[in-house]
Amino acid sequence: MSERQHPLAALTRTRILEFVREPEALFWTFAFPILMALVLGFAFRDRPPDPVPVGVVSGPVSKEITDALAAAGTVKPTGFATLADGLEALRTGKIALLVEQTGSLTYHCDATRPDARIARLEADGAIQRARGRLDPSPARESLVHDKGSRYIDFLLPGILGLNLMGTGIWGIGFSIVNARLKKTLKLLAATPMRKSDYLLAQMLSRFVFLVVEVGVILAFGVAAFHVPIRGSLGLLGLVTVLGALSFAGIGLLTCARARTLEAANGLMNLVMVPMWLLSGVFFSSERFPKSAQPLIQALPLTALNNALRAVMLEGRGLPAIGNELAVIVVWGLVSFSLALKIFRWQ
Amino acid sequence: MAPAISCHGLKKHYGDVKAVDGLDLEVSAGECFGMLGPNGAGKTTTIEILEGLTSPDAGEVTILGRRWGSHERELRERLGISLQETRLTEKLTVYETLGLFRSFYVRGRDPERLMADLSLEEKRDARVGKLSGGQRQRLAVACALAGDPEILFLDEPTTGLDPQSRLQLWERIAAYKAAGRTVLLTTHYMDEAERLCDRVAVVDHGKIIAQGSPAELIAGLRAPHIIEFSTEPAVSDELLAKIPGIGERRQRDGRWFLAAPSLAQAVPALLSALDGAGAKLVSLSTHRATLEDVFIALTGRELRNE
Prior knowledge:
The complex is a heterodimer.
Chain A: H1 7-20, H2 23-43, E1 52-57, H3 62-72, E2 75-80, H4 83-91, E3 97-101, E4 105-108, H5 114-130, H6 151-181, H7 184-189, H8 195-204, H9 206-225, H10 233-254, H11 261-278, H12 293-298, H13 300-312, H14 322-342
Parallel strand pairs in A: 1-2, 1-3
Antiparallel strand pairs in A: 3-4
Helix pairs in contact in A: 1-8, 2-9, 3-5, 6-9, 6-10, 6-11, 6-13, 8-10, 9-10, 10-13, 10-14, 13-14
Chain B: E1 5-14, E2 17-27, E3 32-36, H1 43-50, E4 58-63, H2 68-78, E5 79-82, H3 94-103, H4 111-117, H5 133-144, E6 151-155, H6 163-178, E7 182-187, H7 190-196, E8 199-204, E9 207-212, H8 214-219, E10 225-232, H9 237-241, E11 249-252, E12 255-260, H10 263-277, E13 280-288, H11 291-299
Parallel strand pairs in B: 3-7, 3-8, 5-6, 6-7
Antiparallel strand pairs in B: 1-2, 1-4, 8-9, 10-12, 10-13, 11-12
Helix pairs in contact in B: 3-4, 3-5
């Protein structure tokens, strides 16, 4: 004789099993954050920019010029037998600058290209110094490279927030509309199951996915970019859990009545796209006009991103992010209760 | 004792379509009641109104003396419902699915016992997505039985199943009924209704056009035998009308269907009339009248070709 499970536990377990037994869903939950992190990794490699390719036309002093450029290290010289070959390479963008000296020293370049201007400055400096130029006031470089103030540090909490929103709304939306299409919802509605249990189970099952998503993104950010986590891990956990639950509630509401996957998809995009743009994922939401700020600050993703950044980058404590957490919780509670009211079971 | 299920003046319109158009029904406790009719007759809409899943435009529904509006939770605990073409979650195993449904009911049957009852033990750990049509349908019925219900609602329980699976399900439904429980089912299979149901309501265009035990309905034809024949050349209706001992006549696809109270009287008379008219018999067969014939007699249409 087996024990009767608690319906909420049984429903949550069902949702988790459904998810982990869906290889594709599982793959994307793991793969998406990793792919995103890899792309970021390429974009924000922690090393100086590549040397700019520069062409040198073969001539009486081309060897000397090439040596001077190579010694400087900031540009990468390539030899060309004729001027025509070099100009061809310049036109097709294989080099940013072409150096030619038959009589006088000539730089061929497109001045509207930023890398051409950099190449010209670097190449000219290298050649002139090699030929004996003395700088009247030699300068020393002091490189600023402060962890916590780089773009990647700003971006990573945003990606985390974006991911919590995306998986919450998509994950829940599609599973619900699918269950509605297959009449599974109708069958459940024909049992004494509490309707709130079903919706709550959808939200609770998010915890499992949360550990994966947040864990992968954070671990990658810390390991690959040394993104700081200055606040407490417990508080960071609380923020992500509340954020995930809130977006799960919003996902439930978004798909509370949709009858087709197409309709659900449209609704989910309608909900998410404005937040992708407005909520400070890729750039600060402060850049939008002041008049729009009250609206933008009231968006759940803005609140989540701000709270994540405050904890991770500024090391703030609970009192400092109280407002943000309140916004997140209110969105979640209102969405959940509204979803429960208007939910379509068939 | 109050009837297990009763409804009066039930109406449900979808735009211009009168899915249910003034339907009255009463099912006693311990009875197996079948709603018989072609697709689109309004059976599913009716059973879903009775199940409290669809609200009627007009009419009253009482289940176990309770109404849906005021006692939904109590009723849900006491009813078992299997929908038409339900697709259970494919990723769960049979055992997990039954455990889930069992969890919804305060009192109910153990999943192990349900699997035994519906011969699903071998499939205990198989995913629902891997089950055959018959196994899925048995699982759907097992889910409906998870709360040990007083009334079992089955909407076309054996549609699309192979004969062996149908037989297995019939046995389970009969066993459930034998325990004194009430069953309401819809079907468009005559043999299913005749085999399982104590009483049958023939539904067409959202109304009940006849009601009674299968035997009563067939007896209502006043001609328990059907003679089916074809000739070369074809014979006219006038000729057949003169033959004594023949009731209702129908013609379809070049074959005649004659209702006859007594074969011993009708067949020789028919043969001699055909002989006299110079028509050569191509085929001749007889069968006892079935609910199919009742339906044809009532509507002039066949059940299955809708």
